[in-house]
Design brief:
Blueprint lengths: L1 H37 L3 H14 L4 H13 L3 H14 L4 H13 L3 H14 L4 H13 L3 H14 L4 H13 L3 H14 L4 H13 L3 H14 L4 H13 L3 H14 L4 H13 L3 H14 L4 H14 L2 H11 L6 H37 L1
Length: 368
């Protein structure tokens, strides 16, 4: 019995010693593998990592190193097997998820990449590089709410990061969170004064929120800073009309004519404004200029008809409306004006005939 006990104790000691020796030997081979890999001796490093794994097969670190080197050597299937085994052995070994994320990314398996990034962040929420990559991938995959959440988390630690602000602003805008988007773009405008793209976005959001005064002010400023910005002048035109700001409407139209000297649409619109304001000479000059470019333009002919009507020249007005009716865009309006003018002319003739008849009877009474 005593001999048996002694034998068992000796056996346990021998096994323990063997385990210690194999673990220590595995560490040495792993260290050699690291040195070989750093020196560019990849095949030698591979041998050392494999030896380390064979000596200590339950060590996730060794399997991860083996998998990473296999990936570098383009042996992707073997790399993935080694890395997945490492995860099974130790799901908290964070390096493994980095390498798997790269492999899945190369394979365009973005759902798996997202899962790897999530695993990393669950183990270490402070990995900002991973969170930013996750946010960008969410955004690429059209997962806008998820992307916005990750960008907002990053923004908490870097509130003046222009890249993060741009991403958060764009996603809030896309998701219809306009007031929150405006807060971000206002900050961007302060951080990047003179950035026309940001200023234009601020103006667009203000308009969507119904702040037409604020939007008009922004677009007017953009137009004044760059006299070639046709889009800004168009916005000033639309907003000035909404707000019934005639002076700014005229300013926008004059500049649009300057920028687009062959676009008769703006000439017709400005002529209409001049006619409404009683500036008939200005209107006529503009209409003549436009009609030289486009003699059959319905909008110009309609405005020309309005001009002659205001001048009391109904016959010439009627002729302009007849010509305008040949333009399908203005046919209905022109024909309605023709009917109106004909009715006026008929009433005028009737009044003249009545006046003549009254004059005839007055003369008859005086003669008797």
């Amino acid at each position: 019995m005593i001999h048996c006990l002694v034998y068992n104790i000796a056996l346990i000691c021998a096994i323990s010693s063997a385990e210690v020796d194999s673990s220590s030997e595995a560490r040495r081979h792993y260290a050699w593998g690291v040195r070989y890999e750093k020196g560019g001796l990849f095949e030698d490093a591979l041998v050392q990592y494999r030896t380390a794994v064979s000596l200590d097969p339950e060590n996730a670190k060794y399997r991860c190193a083996l998998g990473e080197l296999l990936y570098r050597l383009k042996e992707v299937r073997a790399a993935k097997d080694a890395l997945l085994k490492a995860v099974d052995l130790d799901s908290t070994y964070i390096r493994t998820y980095y390498i798997l994320a790269r492999i899945y990314y190369d394979e365009a398996k973005y759902d798996s990449v997202i899962q790897m990034y999530q695993n990393i962040l669950s183990l270490d929420p402070n990995r900002d590089d991973v969170r930013r990559s996750l946010a960008e991938l969410y955004r690429y995959e059209g997962m806008d709410s998820e992307a916005l959440h990750e960008f907002e988390v990053l923004l908490e630690d870097s509130p003046e990061d222009v890249g993060l602000l741009s991403a958060v602003g764009a996603l809030r805008l896309k998701l219809g969170r306009l007031e929150e988007a405006l807060e971000v773009y206002d900050m961007l405008a302060r951080l990047r004064p003179g950035d026309r793209k940001v200023e234009r976005t601020v103006a667009r959001i203000k308009r969507k929120l119904g702040d037409y005064e604020g939007a008009l002010k922004m677009y007017r400023s953009l137009a004044e800073e760059d006299s070639s910005d046709c889009e800004a002048f168009l916005e000033v035109l639309a907003l000035s009309r909404r707000l019934n700001r005639r002076e700014e409407e005229v300013w926008a139209l004059e500049n649009l004519i300057r920028l687009k000297p062959k676009d008769t649409r703006f000439m017709a619109e400005l002529a209409g404004v001049y006619i409404d304001e009683g500036k008939l000479d200005k209107a006529r000059k503009l209409l003549d200029r436009g009609l030289k470019l486009a003699p059959d333009d319905g909008a110009l002919l309609v405005m020309s008809g309005e001009y002659y009507w205001r001048k009391g020249e109904r016959g010439r007005a009627l002729e302009e409306y007849r010509r305008a009716s040949a333009d399908p865009r203005w046919k209905e309006y022109a024909e309605r004006m023709i009917l109106t003018l004909r009715a006026e002319i008929a009433q005028e003739k009737l009044r003249e005939e009545e006046e003549k008849e009254k004059e005839f009877f007055r003369r008859g009474r005086r003669g008797s």
